[in-house]
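Let us work through a complete example step by step.
Step 1: write down the sequence.
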Amino acid sequence: MKKNLSHLDQEGNAYMVDVGGKAETERVATAKGEIYMNEEIISRILSADIPKGDVLSVGRIAGIMGAKKTSELIPMCHPMLITSAKVDLSVNAEKNCIEATGTVKTKGVTGVEMEALTAVSVALLAIYDMCKAIDKSMEIGRIRLMKKTGGKSGTYEREGE
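Step 2: predict the structure and record it as tokens.
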């Protein structure tokens, strides 16, 4: 079964999808990602020894702000009334990384997958910004949608994680 791209008209021109006739439902999306760094940065984050401040708190706030600004960054995203946005950051010293999980909720006519993905991306970028003076070789990766619920397409859950 071939799926059509919803943001292209019959001539292949991009447009913003009309969601006016869709049913309002509760929608939730969760995304994850990581930033890999050296042991020194991990140690300094854990001991609150980063000159720019509390890396994890700033990352969380930046991620929430990113979720709220998604429609300003991604051209075809609709402005959303977000009812909840949460970003969890955890240090995984064994893997030398910080793992980010972003969950966004709304009651509306379109999903919040892009908002959850943006929350994770911006949180990780903020961490990079706060730590780049120590080591610029940090690597952001594995940003992915883990789960989404609500709407016509129903539930999606990533397998194998």
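Step 3: interpret the result. The domain at 30-149 is CATH 3.30.70.640 (Alpha-Beta Plaits).
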